[in-house]
Design brief:
Blueprint (H helix, E strand, L loop, with lengths): L10 H14 L13 E5 L3 H12 L3 E6 L7 H4 L8 H13 L3 E4 L9 H6 L2 E6 L5 E2 L13 E3 H9 L9 E5 L3 H10 L6 E5 L11 H9 L3 E3 L2 E9 L2 E13 L8 E4 L5 E4 L2 E4 L3 E2 L2 H7 L13 E3 L2 H4 L4 H23 L1
Parallel strand pairs: 1-2, 1-4, 2-3, 4-16, 6-14, 7-8, 7-14, 8-9
Antiparallel strand pairs: 5-15, 10-11, 11-12, 11-13
Length: 341
């Protein structure tokens, strides 16, 4: 209705106003009587932090273990600062710590300790929220460890640390999601002349946020749609280009999303000094299998061990990961409440 008079309400700007207002008028964490029960959370990303916030508010003693040097997960090591200023993330993490949550960094599950160690250390319950930190391969010919070829997670983590990355003049990003857009927008801010994204479907099928795509185009990123990679080209151990084919879209009998098919005899080569794969991420499959992950109610086959975030559902949005963390916290609270009765 609103759109027929002037313009639709901008929900995003309304949320921004509320977030800015709360930042300028912070409320101190309320005092909650502790119940004496410890909960360990593995992973300090949006799911783990949200679960910690919820559980601390219910009186639990919460300890978060994070493998990276600083908390935040993908918020700290993958989302660029021009999208998420680090002072905002720091402010929210400090608020959670003021609630009594302890965060320990540089500790890796499976290397430094096990779930059994956490339980023996007094944890009544454990939440695994380790995210999706394993990049998916492009699955093309000659895809191997070459100088100038990397995964988007590696690139974004190095970019977040202000590391100097020798990209060369031409950068090629493969993928169509938000990670691809973040990668391209980060690369174009570095010492490079041209950044191109290739995506095997069309603009309507591109899953990346429309506003982020628009910003990337304004900043000079080139997007080649209906283009699929087939073979990496190398020269003296370094990438020099990517062989691609044009694609067409046909109706899919499954999801309803149109499926790309390669067009015969349409091969061509795009020159590149750096190729960054952003075709997707996945969780640690071996850990998921060992735990026997059950999406609802965020449980595993191990008694007292729960899971949350992208580790359960695969790559999602930050909001969805936070919602998953909240559900996991409720599942833990329900489990421990029943166990106490």
């Amino acid at each position: 209705m609103r759109g027929s008079f002037d313009e639709p309400l901008s929900i995003k700007l309304l949320k921004r106003f509320l977030a800015d207002y709360n930042a300028e008028n912070p409320r101190p964490p309320g005092t909650v009587k502790t119940n004496g029960k410890k909960v360990a959370i593995v992973g300090a990303g949006p799911a783990g932090l949200t679960a910690a916030h919820e559980l601390a508010g219910c009186g639990y003693n919460v300890e978060i273990l994070e493998s990276y040097p600083e908390p935040g997960g993908m918020l700290a090591c993958a989302i660029p600062v021009f999208r998420l200023p680090r002072e905002i993330l720091k402010r929210d993490i400090e608020y959670i710590e003021r609630m009594g949550v302890t965060i320990k960094t540089g500790i890796c599950l499976g290397t430094d300790l096990s779930i059994s160690d956490l339980q023996r250390g007094g944890a009544y319950a454990v939440i695994i929220a380790v995210g999706t930190h394993q990049g998916i391969k492009m699955n093309v010919k000659n895809e191997k460890d070459l100088e100038g070829y990397m995964d988007c997670l590696e690139f974004l983590a190095r970019y977040a640390k202000d590391e100097k990355i020798p990209l060369g003049d031409e950068v090629l990003v493969v993928g169509g999601g938000n990670a691809a857009i973040d990668t391209a927008r980060s690369a174009i801010r570095m010492d490079t002349k041209k950044v191109t994204i290739i995506y095997r479907r069309g603009p309507e099928e591109m899953p990346a946020d429309r506003n982020e795509v628009k910003e990337a185009l304004i900043e000079g990123v080139v997007i080649k749609f209906l283009t699929a990679p087939t073979k990496m080209i190398a020269l003296n151990g370094r990438v020099s280009g990517l062989e691609c084919v044009k694609t067409g879209l046909v109706e899919s009998s499954g999801s309803g999303r149109r499926r790309p098919v390669n067009i015969a005899d349409s091969e061509f080569i795009i020159n590149a000094d750096t190729i960054i794969s952003a075709v997707g991420q996945e969780p640690d499959k071996e850990l998921r299998k060992a735990l026997g992950v059950n999406c609802e109610p965020m449980s595993t086959r191990m008694d007292g061990v729960f899971c949350a975030g992208d580790f359960v559902n695969g790559p999602t949005t930050v909001v969805e990961a936070m919602a998953s963390g909240k559900r996991a916290a409720r599942a833990v609270d329900g489990y421990l409440s029943k166990k106490n009765n």
